[in-house]
What does this fold into?
Amino acid sequence: MPIIRRDGPAGPRDVSLPSGLDVWEIVQVVRNVGNRAAPAARYLAIDVAEVEGAIAHAAAAPGEVDERIERERGIAERALAEPA
Amino acid sequence: MRLLIDRAIAPVVATRLRGLRRDAVSVAELGPDAPSEDAAVLEFAAGEGRLLVTHNAADVLPLLAAREEGPGAILVSAVRYPRTPLCVDRVVRALDAAHGDVPDEVLEHAGVHWLEPPAGCPFWPPPAKG
It folds into this structure.
């Protein structure tokens, strides 16, 4: 499955086609389900092959995925720590 | 409150919400013409009068900050609501409970509402570590 580079408000990132999901978004789900492709594919309603492609792509540059996941975690934790 | 569920959240969340008589649709259900870039997804949501439900804060927050009018977003923390099949029910229950609780600022002025567990939720707060 093809991976393209796309600009976004948070900076450029790798996007998986045909779903249009960011690679980090797919990998985050994979990690959440025990590093298994099939349940991640079912959760996201995409082909297993696309999940496997994202995993392989991320393995070549794991820092980018980790950085983005941590960035999202930081934004959420700061926002939720603020009093309503 | 009308909702557009972002592509990275399980599409079944929208299906389940409709089963609860909520007006929700997933980007994944929009077919080949579905918007994929964040700005286009937000534009689509605004055109349909829907709040975008997403966990992608880093991309969506700057886009909403540039807007003054229209529906905003419900942000779903991946810490509180990990994207796993086991958490689909949590998200559905929290979104169902959020109806009526989302401020007008979010609904009409491109504001942001972080999804909170519903009152009495058995999984929140989590037990203290150690």
Summary: Helices of chain B lie at 12-19, 38-47, 57-65, 88-98, 104-108. The radius of gyration of chain B is 14 Å. Chain B has a mean pLDDT of 89. The CA atoms of residues 57 and 75 of chain B lie 7 Å apart.
